[in-house]
Structures are given as structure tokens and as C-alpha cells.
Amino acid sequence: MLRNQVQLLSKIATNDGHGEKSPYFDGWKAYDSDPYHPKENPQGVIQMGLAENQLSFDLVQEWVRNNPKSSICTTEGADDFKDIALYQDYHGLPQFRNAVARFMEKVRGNRVRFDPDRIVMSGGATGAQETLSFCLADPGDAFLVPTPYYPGNDRDLTWRTGVKLVPVVCESSNKFKITREALESAYKKAQESNIKVKGLLLNNPSNPLGTVLDRETLTDSLNFITEKNIHLICDEIYSATVFSEPRFISIAEIIQENENCNPDLIHIIYSLSKDLGFPGFRVGILYSYNDAVVNCARKMSSFGLVSTQTQHLIASMLSDDVFVDKFISESAKKLAIRHAVMSQGLAQVGIGSLESNSGLFCWMDLRKLLKEQTFEAEMELWHMIIYEVKLNISPGASFHCSEPGWYRVCFANMDDETMRVALRRIHKFVMQKKGVERKQCRRNKLEISLSFRRLDGTHKMSPHHSPMNSPLVRART
Ligand SMILES: Cc1ncc(COP(=O)(O)O)c(C=O)c1O
């Protein structure tokens, strides 16, 4: 059967480039087969592996109710139905590109200008990344990507394009900062393997770290790509999720300040999936400062246009300055509160997380709970958390983290009560685990003293029975 398939289908159809076999997706499957519901399935798996921003839908729904003309499926908007339903120009509706450009400027504190004619639409950031990968690199070429990074990059930039990703190893000792040494080392490794490096992909703010890149790192990265004459792709899809200082600095600001850089090498990936919380609308944006890339990507965009119905609605929503200003500030406040609940909830039981100020997740440090500092131990702990504590969190290995023991926990895709249940489960789990460790520690000490006595020949040992096969058997809500 498999052999036939390999013969009949293409290499792309039969390889594992989609990356579905990673634990990141396994967690989703575990959730799908046993989803938590407060009444119908209170012992089910809570989804904490999905970076969705559900906290501000009240504002959006209020706007939709107050603006029936913006939808073509209302009495007030039905007159526009025909125009919207017919074939569209692949440049996109001018009012949509204008509104998105203005929104991107607002999110960046109006410090930069975006030209609507450089906005290319795509099916989410996913489609934008792939389109850009097709434009910048040939099969076998590579992009450098600092670790830990969003697992979808492995699919989006590489699967159908044949492009490779080369990790730039970042470490917890300096809060996963991207250093010049790490960039050079990754570049050198690629060269030694005869891989042509075509660019560097930065994700700012970072998924999974929830941190923003500082001016120094952005400038260093810009200098690095300028020296090597390679591209710089900045995935800025979490830019409006920054909820506290330091503020977000877009690469658009940095190039404005650096006259010597070559704008032809700079490209921004954007989407409304995180900042507005609309991943279902598949609004992705490729913004390139390179004319040839804009032209080619626009032609390619025929494969992943945003439906005109969505463009029509978004154009209207994002042109409403009062709504946009309110949304941006309210959303940030709500995220700040959630983040505090999550990080403080973890801290109460001695669990640390990387200090962060953006994103829809915490980068949780469970190194102390690992049996040993290995990726096998990380997976073992993850299995306990998903199948016994029933929380779908994502292990660091799926983000190519170089050190075991880090996990991403999403906090903005659930209501307050579910959040409380999740935290209660974490508390119970950690307390039990600590209890076991204390008992184990006491037992080890006892065993040492007993074995010393045994050496003396004065005592007989009874066979030891482990009190705990799994510390999590009762770790339910
Ligand atoms: C860093 C990053 N880039 C791109 C994407 C894909 O976003 P979209 O839903 O717009 O395709 C995600 C989604 O989680 C992401 O976290």
C-alpha cells in the first residue's frame, strides 16, 4: 500500500514535511479526543496549546452589531453583495489595503509609514511565509531561524518550497537573546554543509518566548544580513499583543534610522490572526520593501487570496479609528491581566517562566521537575501533563529549544473559569510532584543510612515497594 503510494504520488505528497508528527500536533489530537467542558466533560483535556486571542471578542461583536452595513449578509449591506461576490482583482480592495496599512502603523505607535501598494494578501501568515520563501530561495537554500521558534515555520517555509531552516541556537543563560556569535556560528555551519543561506527569519514579538527584540538585537541583525547580503524576514504577527514595557520596535523603524541598509533585503510578515484574534479569516500580509518581490508575490497571491467578503468587513472595521484605538488598548490590558494570573499562578507553586511582555503564552520553566536534563525526560513529563493532568501544553522540543525542560502554555484562548481550573490542576500536580520528591529524598537518605547499617551487618532490609507509580494519578481538578 505504502509502496504504491510512493510510486503514485509526488515527493511532496509522501514526505513528512507538514510536520504533523511532532508532539505539538499530538497534543492537539489528545485534546480533540477528550476536550474539556465545564459540565459535559469536566475531567477532559484543557487546550493550552493554541495561541488564540479570545479575550476581546465582546468589543468586536459590539462593533459588528453597530455596523450592519459592513456585512453583505444584512439588510443594510445586501446592496453590495453582487460587487463583492464577483471575481476580484488580486491586488485586493484598495480600501482594505489602506485600512490594513493604517492599522499596522497604529500598532507601531505611528512611528512608521506603510505604503498600501506594498501590501500583498495571503492566506494567513502561513501563506505569506510560503510565498516569500518561494520568492527568495530555491530548493536546497536555507533561512537561519533563532531557537526556540514557532513549529509551523518548518511547514510554512519549507514543505512545498524545498527550502531548509538552519537553527540559530539561543540559550536560557541570556534569556534566549540572539547574539552575533550565534548567528555567525549557524551561518558557518550551513556553509560547511554547502547550504546557501538566503536569509534570516526573526519573529518579533516571539512565539514561544513572549518577548520583544530590543533595538540592539534588531540593529545587529540588520548589520549581519547587510554584511552577508542575505534577506531579513520579520514575522511581526504578535505586534499588538505587547502589554507592557519595553515597547515593540518594528524592523520598519530600524530601517528608517539606518540609511546604509538595503531595503530590498527587508520583508515583513503580518496577519490579523493574533493581534485581532481572527485566525479563521485567514488575513495574511506580506509587506516587502523590494519591488520585484512585491510584484512576484502579488502574482503568486492568486493561490491564497483573502475572500473579498472578509476584505470588505475588515476594511470597514479597521477604518473605524475609535474602534481600533479602543481595541488596541483594551486588548493589551486584558492580555496583561491574563499574563499576570498565569505567571503569578505558576510562581505560587515555585514554577518560573521567562519574563515576558507580549504574546498569548508563557514560556514555562519545568527543568526542576525533570527526572534528568534530557529531551526524553521532557517528553516523559509532557506525557504526564497531557494524559494525567489533562492539560495540552507544548514541549520545548517542538520549538527546537536547545535545552530540555521548557514548555509553552497558552493563556488567552479560554475563559476565566477554565483558566482557574487549569491553574488548580497545575498546582495539584506540582504539589504532588514535590511531595513525591520530598518522600523520595527522605527515602533515599533512609536507604543510605540503612545500607550503611547493612554494611555493618546489623540490620535486615525488607524489599522496597515504590509508593508511587505515577505521582499524577489523582491530579485532577
Ligand atoms: C510566529 C507565527 N507565525 C505565523 C503563524 C501563522 O499565522 P496565521 O494563522 O496567520 O497563518 C503563527 C501562528 O501561530 C505564528 O505563531
From TrEMBL:
Known pathway: Alkene biosynthesis; ethylene biosynthesis via S-adenosyl-L-methionine; ethylene from S-adenosyl-L-methionine: step 1/2
GO molecular function terms attached to this record: 1-aminocyclopropane-1-carboxylate synthase activity; pyridoxal phosphate binding; transaminase activity
Aminotransferase class I/classII large domain boundaries: 46-426
Residue stretches spanning the membrane: none
Catalysed reactions, semicolon-separated: S-adenosyl-L-methionine = 1-aminocyclopropane-1-carboxylate + S-methyl-5'-thioadenosine + H(+)
Cofactor(s) essential for the protein: pyridoxal 5'-phosphate
Keyword entries, A-Z: Ethylene biosynthesis, Lyase, Pyridoxal phosphate, S-adenosyl-L-methionine
Chain residue ranges for the region called Disordered: 457-477
EC number: 4.4.1.14
One GO term of the biological process aspect: ethylene biosynthetic process
The family this protein is said to belong to: Belongs to the class-I pyridoxal-phosphate-dependent aminotransferase family.
The name this protein goes by in its record: 1-aminocyclopropane-1-carboxylate synthase
Organism this protein belongs to: Handroanthus impetiginosus
